Amino acid sequence: MSEQVLPFYLVCDESASMDGEPLDAINNELPKIHQEIASNPIVADKARFSMVGFSDTAEVLLPLTDLGDIDSLPMLSSRGLTSYGAAFSLLRQAITTDIAELKQAGHTPFRPTVFFLTDGQPNDYGWEDAYGELVSPNFTARPHILAFGFGDVEHQTLTRIATFRAFVAQTGVSPAQALSEFARQLTKSIVRSATLSASNPANAPQLVLPHENVPGFTVLAADPV
Question: 43-84, pLDDT tens digit by residue?
């Protein structure tokens, strides 16, 4: 029997500017995400989760997997400059492979959702080309992208990346506080999407239901893609 699954991707900036509190905060919150998602029976049957870390290069830290099947999540570490092009190129490749494998296994994948987290500005020119390929209508598995930024993130770039909604941490909010709310946002989005898809499967491939207001963050208007 075909099973509907939710592919979610956490794409995180591992550049040098993230060293210290930002990455420490993320690494501290990831086990909470894992525990909450994997322990929810509604979500455990549907959610598939992947992690991508990026700087000068990008790597899949956790291939798309059922969180209930793993004991711990990988740790992020600071390395290199902020390079968005490598992240978007790798993400497109990963999503292409993941969706093909899910379909081959007889599953019905929902439209992928990406949580893109960064505190910097891209140091690479031409990253827009890789981004354009990722969100192009010609890419049948193109994802929804929610962009979360804090610190010195460039707001204009953040809104260009977000295809659905962009969030920027408010002044005076520490990375730990902001990322704690981000973890709750991620978990709630997966729970809500999985729950509603069970009652309305016809709309499942398009479902992505983040909260409009995330404590500690200001919502920015996403540019149309």
Answer: 777 788 899 999 989 999 999 998 778 788 899 988 888 899
Structure tokens at 126: 């031409």
What's the length of the chain? Answer: 225
Tokens representing 110 are 């929902």
Query: pTM for the whole thing?
Result: 0.88
3-state secondary structure the chain: CCCEEEEEEEEEECCHHHCCHHHHHHHHHHHHHHHHHHHCHHHHCCEEEEEEEECCCEEEEEEEECHHHCCCCCCCCCCCCCCHHHHHHHHHHHHHHHHHHHHHCCCEECCCEEEEEECCCCCCCCHHHHHHHHHCCCCCCCCEEEEEECCCCCHHHHHHHCCCEEEEECCCCCHHHHHHHHHHHHHHHHHHHHHHHHHCHHHHHHCCCCCCCCCCEEEECCCCC
Among residues 135, 26, 182, which one has the least CA distance to residue 190? 182
Tell me how far apart the alpha carbons of residues 135 and 215 are, in angstroms, rounded to a whole number.
Answer: 28
Structural domains in the chain, CATH included, are: 4-220 (3.40.50.410)
